Structure formats: structure tokens, C-alpha cells
Amino acid sequence: MGGASDSLEELAAQIGVDAKNLPATVNRFNKLAEQLDDQDFGRGKTDYDRFYGDRSREGAGATLGDLAKAPYYAVEIRMGALGTNGGAKTSAQAQIMDVDGEPIAGLFGAGNVISAPTGSVYAGAGGTLGPALTFGYIAGRAAARRVNR
Ligand SMILES: Cc1cc2nc3c(=O)[nH]c(=O)nc-3n(C[C@H](O)[C@H](O)[C@H](O)COP(=O)(O)OP(=O)(O)OC[C@H]3O[C@@H](n4cnc5c(N)ncnc54)[C@H](O)[C@@H]3O)c2cc1C
User: Fold this and answer.
1) Which of 58, 71, 78, 149 is the most exposed place for a label (fewest CB within 10 A)?
2) Sign of the CA dihedral 53, 54, 55, 58?
């Protein structure tokens, strides 16, 4: 769901939210953006935020700018998982290991349900999809060969 309008009230109607709350929320955001202090969500307070922001601007300003110029746009944001922190250990055959480090018969894993093959680092784009596809391929082949039944 999304929308676009020159008026915040009209945009609110398009996306099915209260016509008074949206302008009030935008006004508050603009005030905090002007102060470069997002007290509501802490935007711009971490190095990570600022790194992915507009680095031509100083400090929290890299991620905070007022919403003052029409047209206004709305897009629906949904939760997603980039990767996991932890997860089941696997062998190079994509076998899930038990707490003693032995493969569990008939259990294979790939993607976000296993411990990240790259450890605690995300080396860049493809850092999760690449291993997920590779381990999925290995798991499928290993399961077909019945390596641990
Ligand atoms: C915004 C965003 C950007 C990303 N960008 C990149 C990128 O540039 N490069 C990169 O390498 N990785 C990227 N990733 C990470 C990558 O998309 C994931 O690591 C990858 O999709 C994980 O694959 P998966 O198969 O393990 O899990 P998923 O793709 O999450 O698949 C799990 C599936 O299981 C289904 N499911 C869940 N519960 C049940 C149930 N009970 N019964 C049946 N089905 C169920 C879900 O609907 C889903 O389809 C990004 C992730 C996000 C959210």
C-alpha cells in the first residue's frame, strides 16, 4: 500500500490513517530533524546510521531532514530478516550438528536458519544469499545421497 499527494491530510486518507495524526507526526518529526535530535527513534545516533546516510552532512544530519516540500509519498514498510545472529551449526555437508558436534541424522539446514557461514561479518551484498544458495544446493545433494541417515 502507498500513496502520493501534495497534502498530508489527503495522503492520510489514501493510506487509511487518521487525517489529524499524520500532519501532527510529520510536524513533530520536522521539529526533531531541525534540532538534529530524534528523541523518538534515535535516528542518526549510531555510526551505522550515519554511514548509510548522506555523508555530506554532519552527525545526525546525515539521516535527518525535514519533510517540508510537497509532494509527499507514503510506502508500506514490512519486516524482513537480513540474516541471523546465531543459529544451528552445520557441517560442510549442510548437516545440522548436535551439541556434541555430531551430525543429527536426516537434518540439514541452509540460509537464515543456520549459523552464518561467514561468522560475525557481513562482507557485502550477497553475503547471505550466496551462502544460503550454496548451502541449499549442498543440503539437497547431501540429502539425496542420504549422507547421514
Ligand atoms: C531488505 C533486505 C535486503 C537484503 N539484501 C540482501 C542482499 O543485498 N544480499 C544478500 O546476500 N542478502 C540480502 N538479504 C538477506 C537475504 O534476503 C536472506 O538472508 C535470505 O533471503 C534468507 O533466505 P532463507 O531462504 O533462509 O529465508 P527466507 O528467504 O526468509 O525464506 C523463508 C521462507 O519460509 C517461509 N515460512 C516461514 N515460516 C513458515 C512456516 N511456518 N511454514 C511455511 N513457510 C514458512 C517464509 O514465508 C519464507 O518464504 C536482504 C534481506 C532483506 C530483508
Assistant:
1) 78
2) negative
Cα 15 to averaged position of ligand 1 atoms, centre (Å) = 27
Q: Which three cell numbers stand for residue 102?
A: 555430531
Residue 147 CA, ligand 1 centroid: distance in Å: 26
How far is the centre of ligand 1, averaged over its atoms, from the C-alpha of 78 (Å)?
Answer: 13
DSSP 8-state symbol, 147: T
The domains found in the chain, sorted by start residue, are 2-75 (3.90.700.10), 95-145 (no CATH)
For ligand 1, which residues put their CB under 6 angstroms from it? 80-83, 111-112, 125-130, 132
The percent of residues in the chain predicted with pLDDT above 70, rounded, is 98
**Structural element, H or E, at residue 7:** none
pLDDT band at 142 (very low <50, low <70, confident <90, very high): very high
- Cell 553475503, residue located: 127
